[in-house]
Amino acid sequence: MKLELQLNGETKIFTTAFVSGRHFRQLMEFDEKIDYTNIGLEEADELIGFVCDVFGNQFDVNQFYDGIPSHKVISTIDDVFAYVRTGKTPEELKKGNEAGE
């Protein structure tokens, strides 16, 4: 999976290929304690910290906030969650759905 952030006037692309079972477990913990329809500041920071961790902390929470367009914050978190759950990018999942998988 890849993630693009604008840092210091440059587009930086970060990738992750391996996601541990520990990340999946953390997702299950989030599912038990966070109401995704009403995310507050603390929850957003925690979820973005998780995104940073999935990408091996190649960037931090502040770099994420500063480097991503505002309208892509939630969808990016969703995309990372989908990748952790399935091992597939959103594009791969879409292709699979279109192919009837």
Helices and strands, with pairings:
Layout: E1 2-7, E2 10-15, H1 21-33, H2 41-54, H3 61-67, H4 73-86, H5 90-98
Helix pairs in contact: 2-4
Explain what the structure shows:
With about 100 residues, the protein is mostly helical. The chain has one domain (about 1-85). About 55% of the residues lie in helices and about 10% in strands. It contains five helices and two strands, in the order E-E-H-H-H-H-H. It has helices spanning about 20-35, 40-55, 60-65, 75-85, 90-100; strands spanning about 1-5, 10-15. The chain has a two-stranded antiparallel sheet with strand order 1-2. The chain starts with a strand and ends with a helix.
Radius of gyration, in Å, reads: 14 Å
User: Count of helices?
Assistant: 5
Largest sheet: 2 strands, antiparallel
Number of domains: 1
Average pLDDT rating: 93
Strand fraction band? 5-15%
- What is the general shape? globular
Termini separation: 20 Å
Strands in their spatial order, largest beta sheet: 1-2
Main structural class: mainly alpha
